[in-house]
Design goal:
20 strands, 8 helices, 352 residues, six-stranded mixed β-sheet, three-stranded antiparallel β-sheet, globular, 22% helix
Length: 352
């Protein structure tokens, strides 16, 4: 995405998130902070290479958006909804009686639908009307937020990487990696928590390194090694790396952070940190914003909520170390030594 400050300064941010963690919402975000704008370069794939000045540049190789339909609505992603009003292919959605499409999260359910199986469906039915992975495919040029340079063959210069998963606990709202290798480690160990017995033990971590688990067609340890070598490129001006978590929950199971457009508050902090502006708090997981480091004006966040979002429970991190170690052990002798060193450094910072 292309992020422009009220002063007209521009930063380009890219990210890697597992499915259903908000990639398209982020790419089409409508900022709640006055004066900030977000434009969409892409929402799914970035091809990157260094330019002659050592900047890592990215192009969007796709002609359109292939978004997950369920959960997409006017409240969650109005720009996506504005994009799909025409010229769009829909897969595995429900059909209304007048031939339109419908899915869960779009709005109130009609009294009758034809579900994705081709069967009659009503709001009293036991199964979803649309497949959970129902999709819309739409030309990117139809997005009202599409950036003018989205098809520039030179690409755009990347200032920041965001990694993240669905973490109900332990992981703070945002943390800045200490350096490139630490950032690669954060990407290699990114995970989501299972929350239902059907998906595994509640609270167990499901690792999705750099959100590439479904896509990496070769030994992922070699993939990690590739990213470590990128950091050794002579003359490289490397992006900063951040780990974000929009999905922290309170003791009642409710999301603490409002997310969606309010994520612009985190992006503002990321924007400033790209220029080393703003105070930070050093924690075992990385550099966090100070409690007054985020612009929270107008948000209804209690002090306790803020503490949970912007602090690290070292005991909780220590308790999850065995799962991280088990994950890294799966790569055996192929695991780059630097990632093992990063894990040992984390243990040392935690006194584990």
């Amino acid at each position: 995405l292309k992020l422009t400050s009220p002063e007209g300064e521009v930063k380009y941010v890219t990210g890697a998130f597992p499915s259903a963690c908000g990639k398209t919402n982020l790419a089409m975000l409508i900022p709640t902070l006055e004066g900030w704008t977000v434009e969409t370069v892409g929402d799914d794939i970035a091809w990157m290479k260094f330019d002659d000045e050592g900047r890592l540049r990215a192009v969007n190789p796709e002609a359109g958006f292939f978004g997950v339909a369920p959960g997409t609505g006017e409240d969650t992603n109005p720009n996506a909804m504005a994009s799909i009003t025409h010229g769009t292919v829909f897969t595995n959605c429900a059909l209304t009686d007048d031939g339109d499409v419908w899915w869960e999260g779009m709005g109130p359910a009609p009294d009758h639908l034809i579900d994705w199986h081709g069967n009659d469906w009503t709001p009293d039915s036991d199964t979803p009307a649309a497949h959970p992975n129902a999709r819309f495919a739409v030309p990117a040029a139809q997005a009202p937020t599409i950036a003018p340079e989205w098809e520039d063959p030179a690409g755009v210069p990347i200032d920041a990487f965001l990694f993240g998963g669905r973490r109900a606990s332990v992981v703070p709202l945002v943390a800045e990696a200490r350096d490139w290798n630490h950032g690669v480690y954060l990407g290699a160990t990114m995970s989501s928590e299972t929350t239902a017995a059907a998906a595994g033990a509640v609270g167990a971590l499901r690792f999705d390194p750099m959100a590439m688990l479904p896509f990496c067609g070769y030994n992922m340890a070699d993939y990690f090694g590739h990213w470590l070598k990128v950091g050794e490129t002579e003359g490289a001006k490397l992006p900063k790396i951040f780990y974000v978590n929009w999905f922290r929950k309170d003791d009642e199971g409710k999301f603490i952070w409002p997310g969606f457009g309010e994520n612009s508050r985190v992006l503002e902090w990321v924007f400033n940190r790209c220029d080393d502006k703003g105070d930070t708090v050093d924690t075992p997981l990385g550099l966090l914003p100070t409690k007054d480091g985020l612009n929270l004006e107008g948000l209804d966040l209690s002090e306790a909520d803020l503490d949970q979002l912007l602090s690290v429970d070292e005991d909780a991190v220590r308790q999850q170390l065995p799962q991280v170690e088990e994950h890294l052990a799966k790569f055996g002798d192929d695991l780059p030594a630097e990632l093992r060193n990063q894990f040992e450094s984390l243990k040392s910072r935690l006194g584990a």
